């Protein structure tokens, strides 16, 4: 089965200089093909002047930058992001990947695609590397101030994603708060806790705190988009900082270099598990099509990972299964 991914080639902090090499890395004609949507001259220049089999380009003369107002998508139909989503809507691609402005991706997706029946708001489902396996964080950026009932729906969607995409049987679900007691947290969190206790389709384990995120006290952690985005970026920054400090310590002395050489295989494995580029991106759940939002700072490795993630989900029909189960 051939899956075509529409890639917003102009998205992210580095644009075509990383998105195009990432596509070149991941493309497999007849298996995973990539539609590069962006300024044709810039795309071809980043590809070395010509595109190999499995890669095509669709010219989009406009691009939405990291600092642009998400509302700008309404008046910029020729932007690479809007045209990439249109390719999915029109059936020319099975998934869209963008490393661009999260707010703009969410806004453009809501304009181009439809919400699943009954879904109040789509949410960003991001994967965190944890002890013993991944943890799904939802919402990681789409909804800054959701209502309690929307948090309950995030928990339901996150549970289905954890089962279908991460392969976790009967996943547990926790609500991110400042204490384990049901009385802790904001009014929204307290009300959501009361609803989650009896919500169908969720194995709710109560409140979880920040230090529980990477211990898998819960397989799915639910929060609002503001908190989730801060948590996600803090975790990524901490991982980079810790690995950098470890590298610096290993290079600081002869003994350190010797120890570093012995530990290099283990550290390389740890880096691959913790680095954001390993997971590539997060799924905007709740729409009738697959949209993957990558990290703005993604390297070509991260772009390739996001494309693989999107293609794998499309090939397995994960969005359709989640939609069917949500309706049920």
Task: Say what the CATH topology of the largest domain is.
Answer: Isopropylmalate Dehydrogenase
Q: Strand order across the biggest sheet? A: 3-2-1-4-11-10-5-6-9-7-8
**CATH architectural type of the largest domain:** 3-Layer(aba) Sandwich
Q: What structural class do helix, strand and pairing data support?
A: alpha/beta
Highest CATH level, the class of the largest domain: Alpha Beta
Low-confidence stretches: none
Percent of residues in helices: 40-55%
Rg result = 20 Å
By CATH's scheme, which homologous superfamily of the largest domain applies? Answer: Isopropylmalate Dehydrogenase
**C-alpha geometry:** globular
User: How would a textbook summarize the main sheet?
Assistant: 11 strands, mixed
How many domains make up the coordinates? 2
Number of helices: 11
Query: What is the first-to-last residue Cα distance?
Result: 28 Å
- Overall pLDDT score: 87
Q: Can you write the helix and strand succession as a string?
A: EHEHEHEHEEHEHEEHHHEEHH
**What's the β-strand tally?**
11
What share of residues are in beta strands?
A: 15-25%
